[in-house]
Specification:
By secondary structure, the chain is an alpha/beta fold. The chain is 47% helix and 17% strand. It contains 12 helices and 8 strands. Keywords: Hydrolase. It holds the Pfam family Abhydrolase_1.
Length: 270
């Protein structure tokens, strides 16, 4: 199993399907404005531990096709359900970071029978505020007009912590390259979709599957306090705070993140 493309739901999706699959399949959903290679350290760890890792490029990102206009989070969720149908995967552990975490919540809401367990990293369950909606719409307009470079330079110190940008130049360069390579039309469409996102408080309180919540200790976008709120809402949840990490702990502190993920998956096997 390896990198391949699939035409589904009016778009071409590029994805990796790797590993022997002895444990439950694990689907990992990247955030904005990244691609599936964000999860490379996790995929390596999962495959080495005997798991099947499925990592798609969301529509509008990476090597997948672009849908201009507005792409609601529900559309991303339905794409992943359709991918699982194609792969004949009835149920999987589903996880995501940031926007990918919000898409994971949409999968739990819309396709709960497909979810064996959840992994929610550095994400938020709250509906977008009126101020936030305006800011996302304005940013979508800006990305279409100016491209990704200026935006990437502005947010790198929040995607990673400033000290990790300095101390982990290879990681910072990889994150910057992903952001700069994103098609502005795809990024703008997702931003407009996120501007409409619903509140997922009821979705989380209804979760009955094991859930791992992960957050970087110094996340400036979705702080530890937000992760603690999610932990309080989800009955069977575990919270792990990753020291010396920001919004992308899987990239900033992969060894610590992977240990928490594999420990969690081990409890499912048992």
């Amino acid at each position: 199993m390896s990198s391949r493309s699939l035409d589904l739901r009016d778009v071409t999706i590029r994805y990796d399907d790797l590993g022997p699959g002895d444990g439950p399949p694990v689907v990992l959903v990247h955030g904005h404005p990244f691609d599936r290679t964000l999860w490379a350290p996790q995929v390596d760890a999962l495959v080495a531990a005997g798991y099947r890792a499925i990592v798609p490029d969301l529509r509008g990102y990476g090597a997948s096709g672009v849908t201009p206009g507005t792409v609601p989070l529900a559309d991303f969720a339905d794409d992943i359900a359709a991918l699982l149908d194609h792969l004949d995967v009835a149920q999987a552990v589903v996880g995501g970071v940031s926007m990918g975490g919000q898409i994971t919540m949409e999968i739990q809401l819309r396709h709960p029978a497909r979810v064996r367990a959840l992994v929610l990293s550095d994400t938020s369950f709250a509906a977008e505020t009126e101020e936030g909606r305006g800011a996302r719409e304005a940013m979508a307009d800006r990305l279409l007009a100016e491209g990704m470079d200026g935006y990437a330079a502005e947010v790198i110190d929040r995607m990673l912590t400033p000290y990790n940008v300095a101390e982990l130049p290879d990681v910072a360069a990889r994150v910057m390259a992903m952001m700069r390579a994103t098609d502005p039309r795809g990024a703008a469409a997702a931003l407009r979709g996120r501007a409409q996102r619903p509140d997922h408080r009821a979705t989380l309180t209804a979760v009955r599957v094991p859930t791992l919540i992960v957050v970087g200790a110094d996340d400036a976008f979705t702080p530890v306090a937000t992760a603690r709120e999610m932990h309080a809402l989800i009955p069977r949840s575990t919270l792990t705070v990753i020291p010396r990490a920001g919004h992308l702990p899987g990239a900033e502190r992969p060894a610590t993140f992977n240990a928490a993920l594999l420990d969690f998956l081990g409890t499912l096997d048992r």
